[in-house]
Amino acid sequence: MKLSLNGATTMKADLATDIRAARAAGFDGIEIWSAKLGPFLESHTTAELKELLRKQDLEACSINSLERITFRDGASRRELGGECERLCRVAAEIGCPLIVVVPGPRPVGAADNAVLAESVEVLEELSRIAESFGVGLAFEFLGQPECSVRTLEDAARIVESLARPNVGLVLDGFHFHVGRSLIQSIAELPAARLNLFHLNDVEDRPRVELEDRHRLLPGLGILPLGDIVDALRRIGFDGVASVEIFRPEYWDRDPFELARDARRAAAQVLGMA
Fold first, then answer.
1. Among residues 133, 116, 129, 18, which one has the least CA distance to residue 64?
2. Comparing C-alpha atoms, which of 23, 38, 27 is closest to residue 3?
3. How far apart are CA 168 and CA 155, in angstroms?
4. 204-260, pLDDT tens digit by residue?
5. Cβ partners under 8 Å of residue 156, min gap 6
């Protein structure tokens, strides 16, 4: 697998620092945190970003992310296509293959078939925008109770129903655990449909208490990472494993040091040390 650093892990560092820290640590790529992209492009061009990545010999694995794509109302729904187009244009100009897209919360009373229909409709619309730029979409389920798509099984069903070649899936270890996804659901995935594996760990707490801030470096928590990695290997997944952690105490660390620790922890879990 290729190893990537997600910009959420080093949240307080800017994009240029993320790129340099990822390269210094030995990562193959970086997931560009979208909130860092805007400030960078206020004073730089996409050509300069592409050149910075080239000089650091680093791949842009994705732009992460386009949030709450489903169950938007009114002006917010009308703005969604423009948001997608803006990110896809940047991705195309820097040679980035993917935009991560995330479903919104489930409206009160919304049935599973309504979630399926809404998700397919929105992804269809966004995938056609992305296709015009030669970019793919990676659909990421969120395990928390309020999310409309909580498990790998449900996300895979949506992507299968959509049947668009430029739409795939993200498997995030934290969300896999919190939403109670099943290891068997990995075995049922075509490897080509899985775009990214978000690698992390989590504190030993009841699932109902777990929040993003409880994430840990891989190997320091209670996730069954060995079982997940074995299942990914059995289906032939050999794509990008990206360290994504939202832990405030990590954000206060030196990003170069944190990136080195993240790379070392990821390699150990993946048997690449």
1. 18
2. 27
3. 9
4. 999 999 999 999 999 999 999 999 999 999 999 999 999 999 999 999 999 999 999
5. 169, 185, 188, 189, 193
Coil vs helix vs strand at 254: coil
Q: Is the dihedral of CA 49, 32, 87, 247 positive or negative?
A: negative
Give the chain's radius of gyration (CA, Å). 18
Residues 6+ apart with CB under 8 A from 213: 246, 247, 248
What's the full length of the chain, in residues? Answer: 273
Query: Residues 78-102, buried b or exposed e (16+ Cβ, 10 A)?
Result: eebeebbeebbebbbebebbbbbbb
Q: Are 105 and 76 in contact (CB under 8 A)?
A: no
pLDDT, tens digit, for every residue of 124-161? 999 999 999 999 999 999 999 999 999 999 999 999 99
Query: What is the rounded distance in angstroms from the CA atom of residue 20 to the CA atom of residue 26?
Result: 10
For residue 98, give the DSSP letter. Answer: E
pTM of the predicted protein model: 0.96
Nearest to 96 by CA among 123, 134, 132: 134
Whether the Cβ atoms of residue 29 and residue 240 lie closer than 8 Å to each other: yes
On whether the CB atoms of residues 99 and 62 are closer than 8 A, the answer is: yes
- The mean of the pLDDT values for the chain is 97
Report how far residue 98's alpha carbon sits from residue 69's, in angstroms, rounded to the nearest whole number.
Answer: 16
Packed helices 34-43 and 15-25: angle between N→C axes, nearest 10 degrees: 110
| Terminal-residue alpha carbon distance, the chain | 12
